[in-house]
């Protein structure tokens, strides 16, 4: 190989592994704490009633927050990786979230979880023009277990049950949310009676459509799945009731 070609090859090889750019941290999206009163209260005894059975319910309270990386846009620069591979560098914010999962001893027929987080999508670009306008939200995640009359085989797996999950977002102004986790409606109810108990100032969050996942579409071919359709949330307690499309419900009380 002649010297000019050799130098060009060395330069190309060097550039493939040395060209780089850096992601740009635009700062931190601070939590305001404006919705913390809708999380499970610490130091209180919770109970969940389901299928006429009352069970002690515990909520795990984290000591630390989990970090969130919130992508905004590409910088326009690319990093060369390996032989011809490229990486698009991005601008991003950092944020935090805290998770408050619920626990009941034994096998749970349902799942409850709360995440205190920001109005962002950590898995896609976010349109953020003013970081101080990104509000706090609570993501409530509910699951109800479906037991199948007979075992369903899918590939190499066998299934006797399946638990659909749905996400509900509580926000001060739901119409102004940047990121919609699901197609749902939030309404404020000054007074409502749930399971014979009257409550004041309750938020009702409910789905506008089933929003089946691909896995759920598969199981629906065999048995219609019942899925979480809505929740009622009250300040000082958190979720006071969750219900399914078929009318099953969990009632949560504090004693």
Stretches where pLDDT is under 50 for at least 5 consecutive residues are 2-18
Indicate the overall shape.
Answer: globular
Estimate percent helicity.
under 10%
Question: SSE order, as H and E?
Answer: HEEEEEEEEEEEEEHEEE
What is the makeup of the main sheet? Answer: 8 strands, antiparallel
Give me the count of strands: 16
Say what oligomer this is: single chain
Task: Determine the number of helices (DSSP H or I, runs of at least 4 residues).
Answer: 2
Mean pLDDT, nearest integer? 90
What would you call the structural class? mainly beta
**Ends apart, CA distance between termini:** 84 Å
Characterise this structure:
By secondary structure, the chain is mainly β. Helices cover 9% and strands 51% of the residues. The protein has helices spanning 3-18, 214-220; strands at residues 24-28, 46-50, 53-59, 66-81, 85-99, 102-103, 110-118, 136-144, 146-154, 157-162, 165-170, 184-194, 197-207, 228-234, 238-244, 249-254. The chain has an eight-stranded antiparallel beta sheet with strand order 6-3-2-16-15-14-13-12, with no helix packed on it. Strand 9 (146-154) and strand 10 (157-162) form a beta hairpin. The longest helix has 16 residues, at 3-18. The protein is globular and about 60 Å long. Mean pLDDT is 90; it is low at 2-18.
């Amino acid at each position: 190989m002649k010297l000019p070609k050799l130098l060009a090859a060395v330069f190309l090889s060097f550039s493939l592994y040395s060209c780089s750019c850096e992601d740009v941290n635009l700062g931190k999206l601070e939590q305001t704490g404006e919705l913390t009163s809708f999380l499970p209260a610490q130091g209180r005894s919770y109970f969940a009633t389901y299928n006429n059975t009352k069970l002690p319910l515990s909520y795990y309270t984290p000591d630390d927050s989990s970090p969130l990386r919130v992508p905004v846009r590409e910088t326009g620069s690319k990093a060369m990786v390996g032989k011809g591979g490229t990486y698009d560098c991005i601008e991003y914010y950092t944020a935090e979230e805290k998770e408050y999962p619920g626990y009941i001893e034994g096998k749970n027929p349902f799942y409850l979880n709360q995440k205190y987080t920001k109005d962002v999508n950590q898995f896609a670009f976010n349109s953020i023009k003013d970081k101080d306008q990104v509000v706090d939200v609570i993501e409530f995640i509910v699951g109800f277990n479906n037991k199948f009359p007979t075992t369903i085989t899918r590939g190499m797996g066998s299934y006797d049950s399946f638990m659909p999950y749905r996400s509900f977002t509580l926000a001060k102004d739901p119409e102004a949310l940047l990121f919609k986790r699901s197609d749902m409606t939030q309404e404020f109810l000054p007074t409502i009676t749930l399971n014979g108990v009257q409550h004041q100032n309750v938020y009702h969050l409910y789905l506008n459509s089933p929003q089946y996942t691909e896995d759920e579409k598969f199981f629906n071919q065999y048995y219609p799945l019942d899925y979480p359709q809505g929740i009622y949330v009250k300040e000082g307690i958190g979720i006071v009731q969750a219900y399914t499309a078929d009318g099953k419900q969990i009632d949560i009380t504090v004693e």
